[in-house]
Amino acid sequence: MQGVVIITHCARMLFGICFAFMTFGFADAQQTLNIPLPVYGNWCGPDHPRGLANARPPVDPLDAACMRHDYCIAAQGRFDCGCDISLLIELRNTLWSNPYIHTNARGVYDAIALAPCSNPNGLAYKQSMFVKDLINDTMTGRGTPADVFDRWRRLVVGP
Q1: Using an 8 Å Cβ cutoff, are 123 and 81 in contact?
Q2: Least CB-packed of 25, 43, 68, 84 within 10 Å?
Q3: CB neighbours of residue 25 within 10 Å
């Protein structure tokens, strides 16, 4: 029972840190500066690619999922929760061909799950998906809350 309390406390703490960073730090800077941040392939990352018409083809299934998300955002609006939730479900349910793509898909998943979106209920749903997966990883021994930061680091600076 004490282990569950510690895991819950760690998940809440991690969630709070990530939520504050994504909501007040990165999102404001990203929207204000409108600087593309490529994190994977030709499609994954905020404002990446710059301009859908000039984008190159996806390099693999993860990149293709990001492309579908980008087209959804272009049609529905920048902070559409439905587009984000569709991407999260696709990333969660895909069997990735190798550990490298799986780790990057999880990094994209974590970032999208914590990124702000236009509907409070949609945001709560995305965050609940993230927390459930984080707790499940911790309880099954597949990972720790610190792995989230490692996945993000790998996306931004490489392996």
Answers
A1: yes
A2: 25
A3: 10
